[in-house]
Design brief:
The protein is mostly helical and about 210 residues long. The protein has one domain. About 80% of the residues lie in helices and about 0% in strands. The protein contains 8 helices and no strands. α6 packs parallel to α8. The longest helix is centred in the first third of the chain and has 38 residues. It is globular.
């Protein structure tokens, strides 16, 4: 009898989470649709272009190397490799819940990113000074989504049982990396600033949902 009751409770919890996820996905799509519509207006489109030109004005050999490193540590190849290694370590340490949270956060963000890119199909910036080239769609930035979901989730998991000063350092470090990854994509000429902002928005909403769930 107790087993049946527990089974029903888990079914209800699963259905509640599934329903909440569907609602959250719908809200995310609605918010991004409004955001995408606004940034395609002439005024905001011009601001996007000016912001890219402003970031390009910083170009210097040393800074370019830093930006390439930032882009690398925010890319899906690096992030998925790190997640796979960390999940194995967590499982060996019997931290199954943390492993599940990290895996769900990053894997779910990858699915969201692909789906949203295909839905909005915004083309990449076309600037003569681009220092890198990408073939996929531009909106939202996959690097911004991946970096936010990976580093923010890790910061939350590591800071959970740490003291105030250590927690602050972890959060500042995560924010710094996430910001650096976003700037690097604009600096390299492969994303509009609005793509980065949208990627951060996706990351905030998805990580918040995963952590609450």
């Amino acid at each position: 009898m107790a087993g049946q009751t527990n089974g029903l409770r888990w079914q209800y919890k699963f259905l509640a989470l599934l329903t909440a996820g569907l609602i959250a996905s719908g809200l995310l799509l609605l918010i991004l649709s409004e955001f995408h519509e606004e940034i395609t207006q002439p005024l905001l489109s011009t601001l996007d272009q000016r912001a890219m030109s402003g970031v390009h004005a910083w170009t210097a050999p040393g800074l370019t190397r830093v930006m390439l490193i930032c882009a690398f540590i925010g890319g899906w190849r690096f992030v998925t490799t790190m997640v796979a290694l960390l999940v194995v370590v967590m499982l060996l340490r019997r931290a199954e819940r943390d492993a599940g949270v990290l895996a769900l956060s990053v894997a779910g963000s990858a699915v969201l990113n692909v789906g949203l890119k295909l839905f909005f199909h915004r083309t990449r910036p076309t600037v003569a000074w681009a220092l890198a080239h990408e073939l996929s769609f531009s909106f939202p930035s996959g690097h911004a989504v991946a970096a936010f979901c990976f580093y923010a989730t890790m910061a939350c998991l590591l800071a959970r049982e740490r003291r105030g000063s250590t927690r602050t350092i972890l959060i500042v470090l995560a924010v710094g990396i996430i910001f650096g990854v976003g700037v690097s994509r604009v600096y390299l000429g492969v994303h509009y600033p609005s793509d980065i902002a949208a990627g951060y928005l996706v990351g905030v909403l998805w990580v918040s949902y995963v952590m609450l769930a």
